[in-house]
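PROTOCOL LOG
Step 1. Enter all chains and additional molecules of the complex.
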Amino acid sequence: MIQLDEKKGGTRRGQLWQDEFSVFMERERFVGRRQLIKFLTLTSLGMFAGNVWILIRSWLHRDQTYPRLEIARAGEIPVGGVKLFRYPAANDQCLLIRTGEDDYVAYSQKCTHLSCAVYYSREDNQLICPCHNGRFSIRDGAVIQGPPTRALPHVVMERQGQELIAIGMSGKLEG
Amino acid sequence: MRRKTALDGIAALVVLLLIVQVWVLSATLDAFLAGHHDAALPGAITSGILFAATAGLYWFVHRINRAG
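Step 2. Run joint prediction.
Step 3. Record the structure below.
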């Protein structure tokens, strides 16, 4: 039963939801142009709020600092070998790969598609995600094939004597 | 009749602005998730301008309502 609202000039109006989703079709009140434009304006406000949220998160992220962490000693792993380590947090698994006599690269082990653990394939010289066969370049972590759209985050390292030290990350770590 | 046409035109324009705003939001979010934070500020400014335009059109509709 639709309640009459006396304040609205005695017109046959109840709650808005009762009007729009009325039990009886003849009592249904369809959304007019003005109401549609009002709804679209509120949607626009919502999207603007989303953009502002991204901006705030970006500003907060900009101040993020990474710890210095010794991850291996040069010569500790053979050429083509892999060492697992955790960086920057204890639950962020990464891969250190020795690609040449004096060449080392390190990437996050989480696939940028659905966070499966990637592994290094020596035969293909690529990082492969076994879940959906995503493949990443060993050179820069770029996507070669498969569903991932973003490159693997790269661990920035520096060498101090025989020590390989992680000093930062480039790219976004998957949650 | 003219008012109805004006309302139709405004609704079409608002929808058009909204489509652009959806694209701006998705592009900014994609860049943010990829670790590129430089797109956030231009994205927010563009989205703000588009919202201002949409709000301006709504205000115009409101004014037409009151006028008539």
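Step 4. Note key features.
The radius of gyration of chain A is 28 Å.
Chain A has two helices and ten strands.
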